[in-house]
Amino acid sequence: MLIGVIADDFTGASDIASSLASGVDGKGGLSTIQFLGVPGEDAPKDVDAGVISLKSRSIAADEAIRQSIAAVDWLLKAGVEQVFFKYCSTFDSTTKGNIGPVAEALAERLGASKVIFCPSFPANGRTVYQGNLFVHDVPLSESGMAHHPLTPMRDSDIRRVLQSQTSRKVGHLPYQVVQGGAERIKKALTEAQEPFIVVDAISDDDLVRLAESQAGAPLVTGGSAIAAGLAENFVRRGHARSGADHAEVIDGPEIVIAGSCSGATLKQIEQHKVKHPELAVDVDAIMSGKAGVETYLPFLLENSGKAPLLHSSAPPEELERIQKHYGGTEVAERLDRLFGDIAAKAVASGVRRVVVAGGETSGAVASALGFSSLRVGRQIDPGVPVLISTTKKPVALALKSGNFGAPDFFEKALNSMVTS
Predict the structure, then answer these.
(1) How far is it, in rounded angstroms, from Cα 318 to Cα 303?
(2) Is 248 contained in some domain?
(3) Does 184 fall in a domain?
(4) CATH number at residue 264
(5) How confident is the model over 303-317, as pLDDT tens digits?
(6) How far is CA 140 from CA 58, 177, 396, in A?
(7) pTM score
């Protein structure tokens, strides 16, 4: 295995797995497999890139570190030459972590003296300039991420955000240096006094230059977009063997589940329900115990063939009411458990295509399904591939971060699973 990834949530793992498999400009990168948690067996021999999906973004920092170190130890045993710590392109975290604490632990374990931080994902409107993270033309703190129920992002300067999470000094590599190319970037990083360095990047070309500068670095951190360039480093050396398998076809009953309240997901729900059955979860009934799996599973199964959508997404004002009444963490955990149980029972009943919106929801669904690994297939939208379970009767998944995907994503994802 050439490169190993530790992703702090399941949709992020799918996102970077897609980048590694597609390579620069979609020309083909590394044969890639996504593992759901730290594997209990040795790594496959015919895989270039292994992506370990954790659900460590919002848990206690000590536990996030423990899981991440277990993951890196498994990857080192598999012989990886480089480790990538993947977090969200909106730098989802709190003042206590978990990006800073996990990065510190990984840097110490790998002996990395200089570590870059670059969440930029230009294709999805995330860019870093002068150390500040933008979502399209809006500073992060003015985007919908300011209202995230678990990791509200109210500061756009990720230098400050990261510094609040780590005892290591945080520096900055400006855009002018990045434009100068890989050698200039390497020189600037060598000369930097700070061990952790936030890097500007506003285009895919910037990320390719940055990735080239990281060839041979023991640890890289960032969003998924830089991974295509990291894959290209190995392709350039002639070490890559194959790209993603784009020909797998999975047909059969389908369901769509959405637990995200992001603007992108709300638009996707509105478009999908015009042509397909849709049902909103009654959060008050769930929290009071008056509704559960048996309330909603029949809706999905009875509408097989019609791409039924079950969701808990709500506009900001309703979300605020629910969080104030029940507590944001309690609601999120209850709904994630509900969706995971529903997905598991649906697959047991014959469902073979599952589309999920929302990082935490995707993690809950993937955990409930119990698949140990997933092959990476074709890209649906930037950052979201088709994933195929490595089971005797394969199931196709699309695990989408709340902010990702075009308005017609749900239908596009289901169609991508049945076309060769």
Answers:
(1) 28
(2) no
(3) yes
(4) 3.40.980.20
(5) 999 999 999 987 778
(6) 19, 23, 33
(7) 0.80
